[in-house]
Amino acid sequence: MSAITIQSVSKRFPNGFEALKGIGAEIQSGSFTVILGPSGAGKSTLLRLMNGLETPTTGEVRIDGVTVDSGKLRTIRSKVAMVFQQFNLVDRLSVVTNVLTGRLGHRSWVGSVFYLFRKEDMDIAQEALSRVALTDKAWSRADKLSGGQQQRVGIARALAQHPKVILADEPVASLDPVSSEEIMNLLREICDRDGITVVVNLHQVELARRFADRIIGMNSGKIVFDGSPQQLTQSALRTIYQREGIEDDTSLDMALAYA
Amino acid sequence: MTPVSTWRWPTPNGLPPRSLIISALVLLCALWLTAPIVEVDFVRLFGSIGKMAKFAGQMYVTPDWHYVPQLLRKMLETIEMTVLGTAIAIVISLPLGILAAHNATPHLFVYRLTRDLLSLMRALPELVWALVFVSAVGLGPLPGVMALAFVTVGFMGKFFAESIEVVDPKAVEGVRAHGAGWLQVRLFAMLPQALPDIVGSVMYILDHNLRAAAILGLVGAGGIGYDMVMSMRMFQYDRIPLIALSIYLVVTALDRASDYLRSRIIHGSRKSTFAT
Q: In this structure, which of A31, A136, A211, B139 has its CB flanked by the most CB atoms within 10 Å?
């Protein structure tokens, strides 16, 4: 069964930039997909469409058969969690409160006015924190944590929401190699153990090869590669990362030689 | 021979931007032309130094110590008016501030309407509103509190809105992406981030309101103002320094409290801003 269906989606921004040019894909439930591509290829836009943070100009995105549109955003978002490159935590709130904001989609505004949560929400948040091994930091302020720890809070917030899908937009782009490894392991483990569909945008070809079930390559708004890590050959990488109008791209050659 | 290095501005041609030069010239001309209208006259200014000194000299008398108990009572009333007026204003300003922030308002029309309402509320000073409320509810601190709260909402709502407008949109997106509703996004992502600014505004407004409350007595709206004006009129110069000193002390205490509160909220601990 497919968790995410993308059907001939294109996206043109008000400034005229066409980020996506008619894209179609099915993403299987419980799979781990990595999207590769140069900056500006439309990876982030594609991910943000799946969460309703952007709306497609044409075509549609369906999550579990439900079309993502402005009327059902809260329902969709309570099933689709998002992990960001810059973590996007509320710095001034405690770690546990940040994780609890993952529960807001399931709760009405009545208790929220007084910052009240239910006992079961608190248990869910604590459990999510223990999954990312941050129980001892629960009451620290989010901005007191290191980058890797903040990203783990971001993942705990996603988990607390009990999502069907986790979208991660370059989750390791601002982290050191060891923290990156930790974060990728966590995401892979969440996919394997909880059966949550994970879609990750990455810049690291090597991480994509090691963690993905399936790799989607994008270049200037189109899907140019779709296959398993084994099928990601040098020539496939060349198609993904090629730059328009540059004949002998030595930078490309060097980059791929070490990928 | 190496050329002598010269000064230059960080612009393409090394000169200040033309718009800046023109604005400065226009401003200077405007000041030059308007000074006589408000009777800024240096001869008169320096000629009055003697009279100023004489007035200040009259303050140099033994303070009227018998007046202290009444002063304290009146000062306490002034502080109570300030705190109450400001507290009422906070409760009203928070929702209005959200409606008047362009990133939090439900609709552009609501935004404009709230902004205009806030401008209207602060268009006239406290003293004028106090006159209105005195004629409505009678003499005493109550019309004073009402006037303070009214004008304060006008300022505070605008300050709160501006604090909300500069919050980091990334955290807002982070909370929104997880299915939080309209009000939840404002409460959990925007307000916590705007809090240090909001506390700063509240502390400044408390300071301002204390000084405003200190003159409301002028129109019979309670507080220390009545005593101050009466001692001026009755030439009781032994009281004026005491009144001024008491206002100064309370404002200074507020300033210290503000510093402490802000550093606690910004750093999340007692850590002083100086100890790094």
A: A211
